[in-house]
Design goal:
Layout: H1 33-40, E1 43-47, E2 51-54, E3 63-67, E4 74-79, E5 84-90, E6 93-97, E7 102-109, E8 112-117, E9 123-125, E10 135-143, E11 158-163, E12 172-180, E13 183-186, E14 210-214, E15 217-226, E16 233-237, E17 248-249, E18 259-264, E19 278-284, E20 291-298, E21 312-317, E22 320-330, E23 345-349, H2 354-362, E24 377-380, E25 389-393, E26 399-404, E27 415-422, E28 432-435, E29 444-448, E30 454-459, E31 470-477, E32 487-490, E33 499-503, E34 509-514, E35 525-532, E36 542-545, E37 554-558, E38 564-572, E39 577-585, E40 595-598, E41 607-610, E42 617-622, E43 633-640
Protein name: Peptidase S1 domain-containing protein
Pfam family, one: Trypsin
Keywords: Signal
Length: 643
Amino acid sequence: MAAPVLAVTFSSSATAAESAPPSAAEDFSYPGAAKILADRGITLKSGDGHIVLADCGSGTGLVQLYSRTATPSEVCFKITDRTGYLSLEIPQIYNIKGDDHAIKATLNTAGTVTSFDLAKNAWTPVGEGSSTGASTLLELNATDGPAAAPATNPTPAVGTITVGQPGHPGSRACTGTLIAPQWMLSAASCFTDTPGDLSTVPVGLPKTRTTATIAGRGFDVSALVPRTDRDVVMVRLVEPVNDVTPLAVATTAPATGEDLQVLGFGRTKTDWVPAQPHNATFTAGTVVGSGFDLTAKAPADATVCKGDAGGPALRAKNGGYELAAVTTRSWQGGCLGESETRQGASETRVDDLATWITDTRDHRSATANEVGGSGRVRFADFDGDGKPDYWVINDDGSVNVWLNRGGDQAGPNGWLPIGKVASGVTTDRSRVRIADFDGDGKADYWVINPDGSVNVWLNRGGDQAGPNGWLPIGKVATGVTTNQDQVRLADFTGDGKADYCVIKDDGEVDVWLNRGGDIVGNNGWQSIGKVASGVTTDRSRVRLADFDGDGKADYNVINQDGSVATWLNRGGDGHGGWQSLGRVAVGLTTNQNLVYLTDFTGDGKADYLWNPGDGSIHAYANQGGDPSGPNGWASLGRIASGA
């Protein structure tokens, strides 16, 4: 943060390369690598920021090596945290010494790549120094070292978001702001496949494991909800942060000349990966469309660097702060390792996104409701509007959908037929489940195979969207049972993704939480074991559906007399228990197979739907159920004549 600010003007809508600064997302490229190569003859590619080039005379505790091509031949690195990663190329090394960390070094010797463990605080002959011949050092991977001293974050609602493994191909990092217990606001450009192309930002589950750090604690990211008109994304965490106060979002646009506090975890003049956010005062330029420029004020040489993308521009208000904009781009003059001299940054306003933010934050999809059974008719949200649509799984395996536009009581347009949305992959409809795998609010197509494994096709608009309407992601679960009737898919935790639930023959319910499935590795499903002992061995009577609208599936049983009893999900056995509500509905039929519990009205609470036997569907809207008195259920009459 040294060079004076130059007068620059640009907006976030600029598209020409010469007028738009680059993204301020951290790409983990080594700072100043070109100059280091020119000066020292060594190539430093990328890393997590915790293994950095050091002055060999700066003290002890360094990783040291000798190379015949380096200038000078001795090269030293400092590991600044408990773990560290660095990708590099240093040819013709012949001796290397570790520090107190457990360090694995990767070498290329005559085209053969091998890894070995460095001796701690001792020299290890390698390459020409051993019998293997000339070798090039490719990677240093450090673990098991002393942790860095904890840093103090004066704004705990501001944290980091990391895509992939830092320093590895495709990895990125940005800053983000907690705006609700389970939601952060950041820059969508942190998640693009192609820099600058916001159309490549995934909706729902990130393509690569993504983590957020808030107040020193890590949280997996379960879903992304990007804007299509600007560089903004809402990031859902796998669980809420209950001990940090979210920041409010502003409702008025920044005024020209207004002072804003800009925070970020990006690079500084001297640090690659700072442990706490840096803060400076910037002055807002004129708002043009959804963006505006910034000019540093205090300190006058403040700048915005890689890693600051998604960081907040805060407005002082009533003794606190509100979020007025997010950082997206920067010229990065004055940042560590940059030769650019231009400064200034580009911000994207968020004050006009209140409705979108609220709707996204409060959206409860039908993910929490799994009606079970192997019937021809299913209810699930196809288009992501928060209301379940009417699905029919035909005898030939194909799937037709009618979009919920209010049902029969809304008139002739209450159901919008969109025809065949899937050809299907099985004629055994008992193996098909319709539930949201990736957390984008739209129900996906699942198949439970005869060996118990589960395959998923992500909903990208269905057959009418063309050949890419369904995205096959292959096997997402090995499965734990070959009896498909035992398997239910419902959101147990309220993170928007369907979890894998098994109702055993004795009535016990076991749950595996959806952390991305088999495609993300061994941690793709988190077993939490038995969550309920169950109250019936007839699983056809059990409905996992959200009765109280908190986003988590509750345990509902249709009794033999037709009445419905409910236990609210407070975490399940061993995790917070169940709250019994007793009888919540008298019921209209003793045939449990004619009853559905799903949110027809889109208010987040499961309604009572039943088929009187003629194929039609009648509904009663959940207004608290029997415990709320005579108005606990509101009759909506016939909502569908059936198909």
